[in-house]
Amino acid sequence: MIRRIQSATIVGVEGRAIEVEVQVTSSGLPGVVLVGLPDAAIREARDRVRSAINSSRYSFPPDKVIVNLAPADLRKEGTLYDLPIALGIIAASDGYRIPQERLAEFCIVGELALDGRVRPVRGALSMAIAMARLRGRRRMMLPRANAAEAAIVEGFSPVAVRTLAEAVGILSGTIEEPALPSLPPRPVQAEADIDYADVRGQAHSKRAMLIAAGGGHNVLLYGSPGAGKTMLARRMPTILPPLSREESLEVTQIHSVAGILPPGETLIRRSPFRAPHHTASYVALFGGGSVPRPGEISLAHGGVLFLDEMAEFSRRTLETLRQPLEEGELEITRASGRLRLPARALLVGATNPCPCGYRGHATRECRCTPRQVARYVGRLSGPLLDRIDLHVDVPALPLRELSEASTGEGSAEMRSMVMDARERQARRGSGPNGRLPARRMAEVCRLDPTAEALLHSAAERFSFSARAYHQILRVARTIADLAARDAVGAEQIAEAIRYRGLDEGSRL
C-alpha cells in the first residue's frame, strides 16, 4: 500500500513543495529504505520515527518500508520530514488507517522526539508562503511552536500539533482540530535604549549618518580608536523608517530559515542590525553550504550590516561585497543551478587609518611605517570604495567636548527627517536615492547651472569614475530632499563632494 503526503523544503530562503511517498510491502527484508537524495539527518529519521511510533502506542510494521522524497533530483536535508514519514507509515500499514483523502488536505512538516513529541522546524514561514502560492489555500499541519509564524500568511489555515498521536487523531477524525495557540498581546515596542542624543560632538559624522539613512546610502567611517565610529554605527537602526508589511514579511522569512526567529515571534518590525566579527568565515557572511542558507549579509536585509575593523576582513570577503552592494542580492552557484539570496542592506563600515590607528591623530604619534600604512589601507580596494557613497572622517574629540552635554538632534528628530525625505522619494516613484537607476538620474537629479559647473570641475580635478559621479548626484539629491528642495543646488553638490574624500587621493 502506498500513501502520499505533501510536505515542503527550503531552497535558499524560499519554500518548495516535496511529496513524501511511503510504501509498506511484505516483499524484501524488513527495514526502512530512504531514497530521493536524503542527507544524514533524514537517514537518521528511521530510528526517530520508529521510536516515536512505538512510544505513541502504534505498531511499527514488521515489513519493508520504502520512503521516497520527490522530486528525486533535489537534495533534502533536515529533520522536518519526520512527521510526514511517520504518518505515512501509520497510514500505509494495516494497523491504523488514515484516509488518503484526509492526508491530501495538508502540507505536513515537523521533527519528532523519541517519545512522539513534535519539535519546531526552521523556515515554517517560507514553506507556508510557498504552499499558499503553489497550492492555493492548502492547509498546513506543523509543530505548535511554529504556528504563530505560519499564521502570518493571509488565507492560510495552519493546524498546530504537539504530538504524533494528536496528529493521527486529527487526520483520522477522532480528535477535533485544536484552536491556534493564543499569543499574549504584543507590548508596544519601546524606543531603543540607544540614541543619537548620546553622541557628544561629531556633528559632521551625525550629519553623514542622517544622509545615509535618508537615501539608503552606504557609508564608511574612518578614524582613530575611541573616536566614536562604533557608537555612530550602532545607532543607525534608530533613525531608519519602520519596515512595511512586505519588508517585515521578507525579513522574518529570512530569519525563520536561519533558525534565529525568537519563539512565538510573528513579524519582525524593526530593521535588523548585524555586526559580524572580522574573523567570521566566508560562508557565515555570505551564506552557502551543500544546501545554501542565508549568511550575515542576508540576515541584515532591510537593515544595517556593520563591518567593524573593515580593513581586517579578508580580501576575498571584501571584494565579494561588491555584487550585493550594487545589486542588493547574492548569487550562489551550485551544480544543481543558481540560487539568489536577498542582501539589500545598508552597509556601515568602520576602519582605522593605519595598523596602530593613530595616523593623523592630534595628540598621539603614529608608529607605522609608510609601507605598513600603504599595505593596510590597500586592503580597501578602489572598486570597493567606489561603491560606498559616503566616506566620513571621524576625528578623536578632546576630553572637554566629551564632558559637555549633548546639543545635537536625537534619534526621534533624525528619524522624522529621514521619513520626510523618504516620503519625497516615494512620491517621485524612484525609491531610495541610494538605489536610483542611472536612467532616471537626469529626471530626478536636476542641477542648476552653478551646481552643474561645480560638479564637472570636481570630476575633472579628482578624476571621479562614472560610478562616483553618479553617487555624488544621488547623495546630493538626498541632501536636497532633507532640505525639502525640488532642485539640487551648488550647496548640495559641494556637501556631497566632501563625502568622497577617499576618491581625492587621500586614501585614509
User: Unreliable segments (pLDDT under 50, ≥5 consecutive)?
Assistant: 187-191
Question: What is the total tally of β strands?
Answer: 16
CATH classification class of the largest domain: Alpha Beta
Radius of gyration: 28 Å
| Residue share in β-strands | 15-25%
CATH fold label of the largest domain: Rossmann fold
> Helical content, roughly?
25-40%
User: Number of DSSP helices?
Assistant: 22
Strand order of the largest sheet: 11-12-15-10-16
Structural features, described:
The chain has 508 residues and is of the alpha/beta class. The chain has two domains: 171 residues, Ribosomal Protein S5, domain 2 (2-Layer Sandwich), CATH 3.30.230.10; 230 residues, 3-Layer(aba) Sandwich (Rossmann fold), CATH 3.40.50.300. 37% of the residues lie in helices and 16% in strands. It has 22 helices and 16 strands. A five-stranded parallel β-sheet has the order 11-12-15-10-16. Strand 8, helix 6 and strand 9 form a beta-alpha-beta unit. The chain is elongated, with a radius of gyration of 28 Å. The termini are far apart.
